[in-house]
Each structure stands twice: as structure tokens, then as C-alpha cells.
Amino acid sequence: MKETLSTISQKTGFSVTTVSRVLSGQAEKYRISERARKIVLEEAERCNYSPNIIARNLRTNKTNTIGLILPSVSNPYFADLSSVIIAEANSRKYTTIVLDSMESESNQEACIATLMARRVDGIIVAPCGTDPAIFEEINKKHVPVILVDRFYEESDLPYVTTNNYSGGVEAINSLIRNGHRNIACIQGVKTSAPNKKRIAGYKAAMADAGLEDNILVVGNEFSLQNGYLETKLLLNRNPRPTAIFTLSNTIALGAIKAIREAGMKIPDDISLIAFDNNIYMDYLTPPISRISQPVEDMAKLAVKLLFESIESHNRVNTKLELAPDFISRESVKNLE
Amino acid sequence: MKETLSTISQKTGFSVTTVSRVLSGQAEKYRISERARKIVLEEAERCNYSPNIIARNLRTNKTNTIGLILPSVSNPYFADLSSVIIAEANSRKYTTIVLDSMESESNQEACIATLMARRVDGIIVAPCGTDPAIFEEINKKHVPVILVDRFYEESDLPYVTTNNYSGGVEAINSLIRNGHRNIACIQGVKTSAPNKKRIAGYKAAMADAGLEDNILVVGNEFSLQNGYLETKLLLNRNPRPTAIFTLSNTIALGAIKAIREAGMKIPDDISLIAFDNNIYMDYLTPPISRISQPVEDMAKLAVKLLFESIESHNRVNTKLELAPDFISRESVKNLE
DNA sequence: TACTTTTGCTCAAACGATTGTGCATAATTA
DNA sequence: TAATTATGCACAATCGTTTGAGCAAAAGTA
């Protein structure tokens, strides 16, 4: 492990330059003789040489590393996302540094500082907060930034997200088709763009059906607890909603907990539709109807955009919305 | 961002050395005057200086980075583990590189090569495969290695894991207390130590109850599909087991799927107990009795051990088994 | 006044790679 | 044979930081 170009140079008698060129595959370009190549390669093999990437990074001013900032690494949705991103980056010979902002803007700033100090070649982020300024500056002056899942509507930062509006519309329309009129929605972080779009879809679909007066949006966090508490309150309302639309998988679990505690059954006593997809949702009783985000496609596209940007040394300004899938299960009662 | 010690040196008139010492908090130690400190700090502030960590790493031969290799980044169990490890490392000013071996030894070797080339200061790994040699060599010659979850019985590499044996015993005893005699077990990767220990616990508890003849172990993968297929077969056996013990959460989901397809109900027609804990298990119908691993404690201890090793420049040889929790729910029928 | 100690700072090497340029020698051509 | 071109390699600078050693000038002491 103490093997360097210099030690190989000494062993073989060739200069560090020559050794470097052979080992970095530039032998052809710099006309290194077959003989020299062979000797150098054999010595490198023998001593198990592994180039010091730190030194290379310093010299080339490239780290072959990307940064990934997520609001919650352990959330299954983001765990899936990171899994795909890590794999995609890896297939391009890049390493990923995953950081957790824990839904806090100050943590997020610390994450950014870490990534900038480590001179990553690009950043993929599901941002928290409402101010795009810091990412815009980085994107303009330093390294490319691609937003994923969450984005800033007023900014021209590139992003890949689900078509959250149509997801909201689809969810509500399916409820309306089943005769529901009194549909409540439990939201997550109010200021996040996906949340806003889903709410917009919900409201538009309700309005289209002439149900403006029944619009009811509660909650403020993408968490189980939020789902639980808000559902408790919803179940006490008069009239009680016949259906609940939860804007995340965690909120859905909280809602289920509250519904059970009230001794009620899904879908007989109340219907439920959720955003997000997780395999376990099919194993709940009943399986939950849901709006599934194309996580793998989103992750792959985000990486693709990032590398376009890195390799071209230009910024992209692509904004992509991928269509969600509606997965119909048995958590919605037909009231007609 | 093009700000370096050298540019600050030029602006302020102090040498690069002095600037470096002020900015790295060594002013006291090297008797830099208050006046000089102030000037340098102000200039650094003004131009928004951020040290080039790559250069620092090269010079100090430390990267303040640890590597984490997992068999499946998206598996909720490992997602939880990585979340805690990332946070713990971060609180010690370390960055984590997460890599996915995808349960393949050749991938695992590639991961190791990546981490060594990047000169991480230490490695935490839930290894796959049965050969500890490569990790032993790294641990001996290069950087400290701590195993987590999975480990090698014959090796003296340090590890933190669950007491999988007692977990197996507890699961089976609880079934036996409920009158079960015909208990099948669906395992994961046969060669992994946790799997072996769980099986050993299962067999010991069965034997203690005089049920050697009823011992039945099937399966070979920590996956939903394995759980599904093996359960299909188990349900066709004669006599059919009255209870199934699945060695992971994914296997449990597969078992549930097969049981449902057969038109059977848990626990009325068959009982189920699983290894691993996930919040959604409480929301299944019925909630699943399970052996919960202390993921957070394991992660924190693994990080603690790693840093002991890094900071002391010595290897630790601690081997820790943490007691699992038995979470009793309604997936087990009392046959008596 | 002369010597010692402290203060405040700089020099220059080092970490390990990459890379533009240059220089012999060998091979080719005229 | 002389001029030209091709071949094969090495020199030395560079990336931005850290750090042991050293050296004036200022302050303290005798």
C-alpha cells in the first residue's frame, strides 16, 4: 500500500512519467515501447499497486465523486432513490457521498459546505426549505446541481420529479368515481413543491366535480405521527370524511393506526388512498390503493442529467415530470 | 472558490504558512500575533475561503472519510443501519461513502478496491461470502475494519451483531409455549453467520422440547420471492406446519403472500413469526410477532469501535452480540 | 552594555499523481 | 552522406495544503 509511482519507477528504472503513462493507459499516446509497458505493468501487478486517488484528484481537479443530499436517508422512498443513484454513479466510475439534511435547512447548508469542501463534481439533491439561492449559486459558479423529487418552481434549476399534480387529480378522480364527495387530504411539508402540486391536483379535481366546499386540507409533515394525529381529528369531524388522501406512505401508516384505534375498518368505514409506493402496501389489510412514483426512472434520469452537465461542462436546464402510476387496490369503497 | 492559501497570502502579505496556521486554528501554537490573525481571518471571510480538503488529505494522509459496504442499500434494515452510521460519522466530522455489494463477492471486492484507492480511514461492512481473508489483510495492513450484522466466526475481526442464536430460541420457545410442535423455518443466505446462528437457535429450542424430528429448514435467500416460493411448498406438505419462522422481514412478506393466495388466514390457519423489525409490521393484519434487532445500538457501537481504532492507531478485537427484542403481536395462534 | 529568551514570522520540502515540453537516439528519406 | 522524421523516454512544474526548522527583531535579564 506504500506503493507509488515513484517506487515502481525505482524498481523498473523508468521515470515516474513513463510509469504514470503506462498505468493510466496513455502508453499508446506517448509512444511507450512494448518492452517498457510490460516491465512496468508486471511490477505494478507484483506490488499490487493502487493509484492514490487523492493525489490524482488534486492534480486533475476532478474527484469522480458526486454528492447526494436527502431529507431522510432511512425513509424507504429516499432509500430506494439513493440505492439507484449510487448504482448508476458507480457504473460510471463515480462514487457517491450521501448526506442527510433531516429536513432542516441549516443541516442542508452544512451538507453543502461538506460537499463543496470535498470538491465533488456534481450534486443531486432533494432540497428542503424554500430558498433556491444557494443551489443556484453553486450551479452557476461551481458544480452542476440537479434537483430530484423536490424542486423550486420559480427557479430555473433543472429537476426530475413526478407529475404530482396529475397524481393528485388521479387519486381524487378515482375516489369521486366511487361516489365519494367528502374527501379530506393530509399533507406533508406545506412549502415543498411536490406537496403543493398534489394539493393543487386535489383541489382542481374537487372543483371540477363541483365539490369546492368539501375541500379540506390538514397536516404539515411527512411523518407517521402527523398522519396519526390528523386522522384522529378527521374522524371526529361532523360530517366525517368518507375518504382520506394521504400525501405520503408514512402519513398513510399513521392514518391506518388512527382508523384502527377508532375501531373502524378500511374501506368499509372509511376509504384511503396514499401517495408513494412500497411493497408492503400490498400486504396490509386491505392492500392500499396508491399513486406510485417512478423512483427508478427518476433516479436514473437525475444521474443522466448530472453527467450530461459534468461531461459537457455546461449547465442543463431540463425540467422533467414523470407520470405516476395509479395502483388500484381494495382500500376504496364504492359508495354507489 | 478559486481562493487558496496562496491568494490570501498575497492579499495580506503574510506567508502561506502563517495563513495556514491561522486558518487551521494553530495560531496560538505558533505564536501568530493578534494583528496577523485578524487580518488573515478577515480576508478569508471576505473571499469566502474554503480549504481544499483534497490537498489537505494528500498532505496529512487522512481523508476523514469512512467506507460502508452493505449487501443491499435499499433493504429497510440496511437503510436504517446506514442512516445511523452516516449520522454518527457526521457528528465526528467524518463523511461516509456507502457502497452496495448486492450480495455478490465480486462486487464486494470492487467496493473494497474503491475504498482503498480513496484512502478511507476505516471501513464498516456487513460482508457477504465466507472468506474473511481480504478484510483481515486490510485490517492488519491498512485501515481498521469493523463488521456489522454479518461476521466471520473463525476470524478475529471485530464485529457488532445481534444475538441471533437467542433470537432464534426466543422465537421458537414462544411458538412452543403456544402449543406448536410442527414449526418450519425459512432461512436466508445459508452461509451467513446470522443465518446460521438463528438456525442453531431454532434447532436447539426444538431439540430442547423433544421436537428434533420436526425440524424443517428450507430456503436460501433473504428475499420476498424465496419466502413466497418456500411457503407455497410448505403449505402443500403433509402434515402441514402449524407455524412458520422466517429469518427476515422480506421472507415474511413472501410468506404472507403465499398464505393469502392459499386462502388461509394468519394466525387462524397458520402462525408466523419473523426476524427483523419494521414499523409497517404493526400495520399488517394481523400485526406480526417478531424478533427485533437493535439496529441503532448496533450502528452506534460499530462506529464507536471504528473510531476507537482509528484514533488509537490500534486494532480492536471486540466482538459484541446485542440482545434482540421479542415483539409479541397477533400472528401466533394459541393451540392449547 | 552584552547576553539570553521570547515573539513573530518565513523557507522549503513533502504528499503522489499528471502533463507540456524537450532531447537524445534510431530509423527513414533524399 | 546528410537531412529529416519517428521513436522512446525523462525533466520539471503543478495541484493546495501541512509542518519541522530556522532566523531576525524585540523584549527581558544580568
Order of helices and strands of chain A: HHHHEHEHEHEEHEHEHEHEEHEE
Return Rg of chain A in Å.
26 Å
Q: Which segments of chain A are poorly predicted (pLDDT under 50) over 5 or more consecutive residues?
A: none
Head-to-tail CA distance between termini of chain A: 73 Å
Inertia-based shape of chain A: elongated
CATH-defined topology of the largest domain in chain A: Rossmann fold
Mean pLDDT over the full residue set of chain A: 94
The main β sheet of chain A shows up as: 6 strands, parallel
Number of strands of chain A: 12
Helix content of chain A: 40-55%
Structural class of chain A: alpha/beta
Name the largest protein-protein interface in this structure. A-B, 46 and 46 residues
Major β-sheet strand ordering of chain A:
2-1-3-4-5-11
| Full CATH superfamily name of the largest domain in chain A | Response regulator
| H/I helix tally of chain A | 12
- β-strand percent of chain A reads 15-25%
Q: Please tell me the CATH architecture of the largest domain in chain A by its name.
A: 3-Layer(aba) Sandwich
**CATH top level assignment of the largest domain in chain A:** Alpha Beta
Please give the oligomerization state of what you see.
homodimer
Q: Give the count of structural domains of chain A.
A: 3
